[in-house]
Amino acid sequence: MSMLALPEQEYDFEEDEIEHLTSDELDECLEDLCRSKASEFHLYGYENVTPEQIWACVSDEHRQGTPRLNRLVNDIMSLKASRFMNWLMLHNIYKSE
């Protein structure tokens, strides 16, 4: 099994050419990702999963601080139903105590 080597690209951006998201725009993007992941879980039969639960599960890993945006996006989009259900079970156990 060979790995594809992608050529390194050099980007020649001027600082003023890069569009920066506002905090509200970033929050909206992350909410959309969580909604998308919740919808995916609904297709698997987990109909009671909410975007808020997805965010709580993902953000629970990052208690030390805020990770880079690419890490957050990856954590949301790669969240597996089994990992989410394990988190939910533990969360409900500690919440009931």
From TrEMBL:
It comes from Croceifilum oryzae. InterPro entries: Post-transcriptional_regulator. It holds the Pfam family Post_transc_reg. This is Post-transcriptional regulator. The lineage of its organism: Bacteria, Bacillati, Bacillota, Bacilli, Bacillales. It comes from the Bacteria.
